[in-house]
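Incident log, support desk, overnight shift.

02:14 A customer reports that sequence design results differ from what the structure should imply. Their input is reproduced verbatim below. On-call engineer (initials T.W.) acknowledged and began investigating.
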């Protein structure tokens, strides 16, 4: 197997596995407020997150920037909590247009998550970083697409089930889903942050 494919697989597994609970939880929080019809707004935010984490991944792995890993591990669940609180404050997407505030936050949070990815990747480098970095980053993106596809499918199903249960239709199910997903993700992430609090 080529070096590129090896690192692509590593990147994919780093996101699309139960060991990546914090990153999966963040993707859940990020997607929790979007419906299928909001795909443009959701794509805008996910792209902003990708830009952020790709930038930090390159800077940290290349040694251009150094970050304290204990603080990064603490800040990752903090980004989840903040995203969940924003979801609960808004409880809906006003329209399908890109939301610049959420996109800007996604870039900043992507910088944090990218540093988390980089700590994992940097320990495996031997010499050249270009091929491993490209493969790992592409693997992360592929894993994110898979995870987000599963999450969005489950969220759309939840809208229907909760709407039927509440007898208020899909719109009511959508609101309940935002509260439930964001509340649960926020509580789990708060626990993670407390256990990772730097000393």
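02:41 Re-run completed on a clean worker. Output:
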């Amino acid at each position: 197997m080529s070096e590129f494919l090896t690192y692509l697989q590593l990147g994919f597994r780093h996101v699309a596995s139960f060991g990546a609970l914090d990153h999966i939880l963040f993707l859940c929080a990020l997607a929790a407020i979007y419906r299928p019809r909001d795909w443009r707004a959701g794509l805008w935010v996910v792209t902003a997150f990708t830009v952020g984490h790709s930038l930090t991944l390159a800077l940290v792995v290349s040694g251009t920037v150094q970050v304290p890993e204990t603080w990064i591990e603490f800040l990752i669940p903090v980004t989840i909590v903040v995203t969940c609180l924003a979801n609960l404050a808004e409880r809906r997407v006003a329209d399908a247009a890109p939301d610049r505030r959420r996109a800007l936050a996604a870039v900043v949070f992507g910088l944090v998550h990218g540093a988390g990815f980089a700590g994992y990747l940097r320990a495996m480098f031997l010499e050249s970083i270009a091929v491993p970095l490209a493969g790992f980053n592409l693997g992360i993106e592929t894993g994110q697409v898979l995870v987000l596809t599963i999450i969005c499918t489950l969220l759309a199903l939840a809208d229907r089930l909760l709407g039927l249960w509440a007898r208020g239709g899909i719109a009511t199910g959508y609101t309940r889903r935002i509260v439930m997903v964001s509340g649960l993700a926020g509580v789990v992430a708060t626990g993670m942050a407390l256990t990772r609090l730097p000393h």
